[in-house]
Amino acid sequence: MAALFLLGFMGSGKSAVARHLSRGLNLPLVDLDAYIESQIGTSIAEFFALHGEEAFRGIETEALKNFCGRRAVISLGGGVPTREINRELLKQAAAGGALVVYLQTAPATLAARIRRAPGKRPLIDGDGPLDLEATQRLVEALMREREGFYLECANFRVETDNFSIQDVAAHVERAYRNG
Ligand code: S3P
To answer: Which atom of ligand 1 sits closest to the CA of residue 9?
Structure first.
């Protein structure tokens, strides 16, 4: 069986679901953001502040290329599908048998989760932490730009709002096994 990618907005639960799936499917776990942080030797928030988003996107694409052929559970940063080259890489992986899962989550849920980790998301808190209402407005605006990209790359979609991480992981695990 091939790779399993998790796509979705910041706060959609990709990393937590990926940990469950890696255990359940006995596959290596790759958290692309954590991998990038290990490569750059600093946090993504710090890197954004010093070098900006474009520099981060270049590193992110190289990291994605590195893991595309791997048989692993790979949790992606929420902005990966905003770049055309990344969408092509994911579509190629899907054509080669990878399961590319979109964790679909409502902006209100995402905003509440993002607020629980202040300062972690430079695209939201880059100019200082926002309140919940401003966070939700920003999430809604970014989601309008991004949702089409998530749907374009994914070959499996899971709504997560009313389900636990365990439930979502079990649902994805069944899809992967039925491959
Ligand atoms: C980003 C999402 C983050 C991280 C970076 C940019 C985005 O990952 O890659 O801050 O553009 O949505 P998470 O989705 O894991 O928070």
So the answer is: 14
Pocket of ligand 1 (CB under 6 A): 10, 14, 33, 44, 77-79, 121-123
* DSSP designation for 80: G
**Rg of the chain on CA atoms, in Å:** 15
Q: Which atom of ligand 1 is nearest to the CA of 12?
A: 14
Contact present, 30 and 36 (Cβ < 8 Å)? no
Q: How many CA atoms lie within 13 A of 63 on its CB side?
A: 22
Q: Which residues of the chain have pLDDT under 70?
A: 1
Most informative mutation of 10, 40, 114 for ligand 1 (most atoms within 8 A of CB): 10
Whole-number Å distance between alpha carbons of 172 and 85: 25
Give the pLDDT confidence score for residue 69 in this predicted structure. Answer: 85
pLDDT in tens, 129-156: 899 999 999 999 999 999 999 999 999 9
